[in-house]
Design goal:
The complex is a heterodimer of chains A (about 550) and B (about 140). In chain A, strands 6-8-9-11-10 form a 5-stranded mixed β-sheet. The longest helix of chain A is centred in the middle third of the chain and has 113 residues, at about 215-325. In chain A, a hairpin with a 4-residue loop joins strand 3 and strand 4. With about 550 residues, chain A is α+β, with helices and mostly antiparallel strands. Chain A has helices spanning about 5-60, 65-75, 150-200, 215-325, 330-365, 375-395, 425-450, 505-515; strands at about 80-90, 100-110, 125-135, 140-145, 370-375, 400-405, 420, 455-465, 465-475, 515-520, 535-540. In chain A, helix 6 packs across helix 7 (about 425-450). Chain B has about 140 residues and is α/β, with parallel strands linked by helices. Helix content of chain B is about 40%, strand content about 20%. Chain B has a 6-stranded mixed β-sheet. Classes of the chains: A alpha+beta (about 550), B alpha/beta (about 140). Chains A and B meet through helix 1, helix 2 and strand 2 of A and helix 4 of B.
Chain lengths: ~550, ~140
Amino acid sequence: MFIGVKTKILLTVLAIVLLFTVFSLFYFPTLQRKILLTNYKSEIQNQAKTIALGASIALSEQNFKGLKTAMDFVKENEELKFVTLIQKDTIWNPDSNGYKIEDKVVVSYPEDQPFGIEQATSDSLIIMKAPFRTNIMDGEIMLGVSTNSINIRQRKIRITALLISAAIFLVGMLIGLWLSRNISKPVIALHKAAKRVGEGDLSSEVKSSSKDEIGELAIAFNNMVKDIKKLSDLTLEQEKDKQQLLASQNEALEKQVEERTRELNQSLVDLKEAQLQLIQSEKMASLGELTAGIAHEIQNPLNFVNNFSELNTELLQELQEELAVGNTDNIKPIITDLIENEKKIAHHGKRADAIVKGMLQHSSRSTGVKEPTDINALADEYLRLALHGIRAKDKSFNATIKKDFDGSLSADEAGIGTINIIPQDIGKVIHNLLLNAFYAVTEKKKQAGDEYEPTVSISTKKTDNKIQIKVKDNGIGIPPQIVDKIFQPFFTTKPTGQGTGLGLSLSYDIVKAHGGELSVRSPLEKVDGKEGEGAEFLIVLS
Amino acid sequence: MKNYLIPLLLLVCINGFSQNSELTVIGNNNGVPSNLDFANLQSVFKGNQAKWTNGDKVVIAVMKLTTNAGKSTCSKLYMMSPADVTKLWVTVSIKGIIDPPVLFNTAGELQTFVSNTRGAIGIMDAAVKAPNTKTVLIGGKGTF
């Protein structure tokens, strides 16, 4: 809640005035009454003593002037209610061994007063007693006086206090108003000016003629506003300069950004081109390796065909010679051999045909259509192709190949056991993994020497409606720090020209496209206390 | 014992004689009536009457109670002991109906006072000789 200075001053003055009024109206009259009562009691007590003294003199000296004077004096008091002379009689008991003092009223003034000797002081009556003792009698004077005069005086004091309080209240309020006006006016002016300054009006000025702290405050405020204005102007100027500088810098920066963006776009285009080239190279490399394998595969049946063809040529010449000489007994076995050879030629011809068809199938683009595939046969076929491929490049390559195919995945005559995949794509993945395994064991062989026995294994397994294809080797393995990067495009540890870094990346994408997972574990666990080596790639297809 | 008894009886007799001396009532010529019966006299001296018939204030004058006349006044007029009379006058003083009595040592002083005070009435054991005074007859007698 906001309370203004004016209100605060008024409230303060009001509080002081009210405090004083309360004091004047209640405390002061109460105190006055107490003082009056005390004095009055003392006065009454003195009067009672005077009468008692007069009575004592009268009784002992038979001089009644003093008593009369005292009574005359007391009777002048308009508030006198009664004067009673009490005699104290000693009453002995019948055995005369004990007594009691009995009070007896001798006389009262006025005679018809209603108060008894048991009467005690009350709010409206003051009772005072003064004893005396003579040889004639012992007794006391009891004086009763009304408190009316005190009450009247107190009322007068109250009225006076009320009038004084009212006057003080009035004067106090006038002073309060004057004070609040004199103090609050310049303060409010200062407040308004400060508010205007706060809103940005630095031309505000406070006019104050008072020669006190508030006047000095007004002068200080005006000086402060002037200083703020100077500072503000300076700051604005600096701000303007900064804005200009910033604008020019922004412009330069925008130009730089545009230039950089252009360069980056160009780089992106170049990179895409390079990527396409690399992918093409990878494909070509893959195709080359496949072609090498296929060529090696074809060479074998062609050798048979050529050999049996040459043999048949020789047998036909021999048959021609035998026919010329008419030796029919030898003709029959020759013809039998010819037929057998012809069968072998036909067999190996068909075999070559099948290889060529397979090559054509590999060289053709992926159809992108899934078809029931015997995964064991596919793995076996690509193992063979990979082996031919590596041996075509490296005649000395030799490794123990282990195969462990799950029988439940082999297709029977009814086609049960097949899985739906794109065989060309999954075949490429298996081929890539095998080639990498061959490379790893070859490199390891170079390091380890003759004691090392390169081993590459491939296995399939069916678990919970999932197909696992595992390619494992005991080669150089993959360092832990790069194992997370091997599926990134263009990442390779092979020497320049030997790998594009796209093989595993493409394989990963193919498996993902089949809704499967391709993971790696390397290096493998320790064997015989030696640090684990090799790698294990696992394809999981749903 | 006999040696002491006779003087003691004599002393008592002398004393009794002296306390029962003849008393005369004296009054100022202004206000005080010339005749009063004994009851009226008692009433006046007990402070029961504040003013005479002419309106003058009643002023009582008596001999001090230690004098023979005073003692006679106690026994003959008040029929009380001096102490009771003193208490009576104290009571009168407090009641304030009349002023308390003025006490004198000698009859001369008393007569002078009565002579000079309007409405004053006194009682003494001597003949009235002062001017402006008169003997107040009590039941038609000059003494009692």
